[in-house]
Model the fold of this input.
Amino acid sequence: MSRTNYLCSLLLLLAFLIPTFGCGRHDSDEKFIMIAVNNQLPYWQEAKAGFMAAAAELKVQAKFIGPDTYDPKAEQKALQDILLQKPSGILIHVADPAVLMYDIDKAIAAGVPVVTFDADAPVSKRLFFIGTNNYQAGLLGGKRLAEELKDKGNVVVFTMPEQTNLAERLRGYREALARYPDVRIVRVVDIAGDPRVAFDTTAEIIGKEGDKVNAFVCLEAQAGREVATVLNDRKVQNKVVIAMDTDADTLDWIDKGVIAATIAQKPYTMAMVGLRMLDGLYHNKLPRLDVDWSKNSFAPVPAFVDTGTALIDKSNLKAFREAKESATKGGQ
Done:
C-alpha cells in the first residue's frame, strides 16, 4: 500500500471512530435513533448507555425507541414512524428480518443510513452489521458445554429461531458438539420472546424426564434465569446450564453455582461504535447508499464489525461486575 493510500485509509477510519468536538461540525437538527425490542431488559439498557455516551462525546441528539416487549410488528411501526422525521441515521436490532426488511430498504431509498446491530437483516440493503460473531459465540459455548458434561449428555436448547443471530449461535453449538458424539441436542424449544416458556418447559422436563436431560443451553438473555429458578426451586443440582448475556439475575445464578457460565456480548460497545460510525457516515456521505458494499473490494465501509464475546464464570465474575458498573455509570 502506498503512503498516500495508507493515509487516506487512516483518515477514513478516524472519521468513523474518533469523536470530534470542534465547533460547527454538527447541525442543529442532526439526530440519531437506536431501535430494538424488549427495551426494558438490562441488555438494552446497557446498549442505551453506550449510545448515549457516544452522543454526549459527539454532541449530537440521540434517542432510543421501540417496544418494551418482544414485538417485531411494534418495532416495525417505530421504524416507520421515525422515518417520517428523516433522522440522520438509524441503528437497529432486527427482531424479525421478514417483518423489517422492507422498511429498512425504504429508509435507504430515502437517503437515511441504516446500520444493523446485535441481530442482522443480511438480505436487506442495510449498510453493514455491528455485533457479535454469533457462530463463534456458539462454538465458545459448545466447547464449554462439552467440558462441563465431560463429553457425554443430552441437551435442551432454548432459542427464537427466526432471529438470525440465534440461528448462528445454534449452528456454532452444533458444530462444536459434532466433535463429541455422546453430547446430543435432543430438543430445541422456541420461546417466542416469552421467558415463561423456558420456565414451564424446564419444569415439565424436570418433572417427567429429568434423568434424561443433562444440560440446558439458553441462546438469548431471558431463558437462563428461568431455567436456573426452576432448578433451584426443585433442588436439582446435577444439571449444566450455559446462559447468554449478563443481566443481574444471570450473574447471581453463576455466583450461586446454578449457572455454569454465560457468554457475554458487548451491547455497550455495539451501540457506541454504531453511533460513531453513523456520525461518520453523516459527515462523510457515501456516493450511494443502495449498493452492496460487501461485494466491493474497495468498499468505504466494512461488511461486519465484530465487537467480540467473553465467557463469564465464577473465576472472572467479580472483575466483570466491576467493569460493567464502571462503564454503565459513566466511570470509564
